[in-house]
Amino acid sequence: KWIVTTLLIAPFFHVDAADLPKKLQAGVWDVSVNSDVLSQPVSYKMCIDSSTALQDKVIQSGSTASGACTKNERHISGTQVIVDSVCTVGASQVTSHAVATLDSKSFKIELKSHNEPAIRDKTDSTVTQTGTWTGKCPSDMKPGDLKLPNGAKFQIGGGS
Q1: Residuewise pLDDT in 10s, the chain (160 residues)
Q2: Helix (H/G/I), strand (E/B), else coil: 55
C-alpha cells in the first residue's frame, strides 16, 4: 500500500544516473520514507551495485516520468538535483518540486506536491526519503533486492 501511496504523491521524480553529482556507493542502504499521507514512516534495506540503471531506480523512488507530464525540468546545483514538474495523475494535475541532495554514502530527497483536485483527500503533500550506506550487501541480498523490516524481500531491477 505504501508503494502505491508514494507513487501517487511523489509523481514522476526522475533523475538519470548521468545527472547525479556522485555515484551512490555499492552495498546495502538503510532507507526511510516519511510523508504526511502515511500513517507511519516506512523503512527498508536495499542492496545496490554500480549499475547506472539500478541507481536510477533507487533515486526515482519507484516513480518515473511519463507522457502525462507537461513540464519536467531538471537541473543540478552542486550536490543537488532539482526537479520541477507538472503532471496528470488520474483526474488531478500535480505540480511538484523535488530536491535531491546526494553524495556517495547518503541521499535525501524531499518532494512537495500540490494536487488539483485533491488525491486521496490531500491537496498538498510532502515526502522525504533518506538513505544511508551501511556497508557491503549481506549474503542473503543481491543487487536490486529491497528488504522490509518484516523480512519480506522484493527485487526492483537487476544489478550486475
Answers
A1: 344 334 333 433 444 545 554 567 889 999 888 888 778 888 889 888 877 555 565 555 434 344 478 888 888 888 788 888 888 878 888 898 988 888 888 888 888 989 899 877 889 989 898 889 999 999 999 988 889 889 899 887 654 4
A2: helix
Burial 117-142 (b: 16+ CB within 10 A, else e): eebeebeebebebbbebeeebeeebe
Q: What is the DSSP letter of 160?
A: -
Question: Long-range contacts of range 15-19, CB-CB < 8 Å, 24 or more positions apart?
Answer: 15/56, 15/59, 15/60, 15/74, 15/81, 15/83, 15/100, 16/56, 17/52, 17/53, 17/55, 17/56, 17/59, 18/52, 19/74, 19/76, 19/81
Cα–Cα dist 160/157, whole Å: 10
Cell of 148: 522490509
Helices (H) and strands (E) in the chain — how many of each? 2, 9
Answer for the pair 46, 55: CB distance below 8 angstroms, yes or no: no
Give the type of residue at 115: N
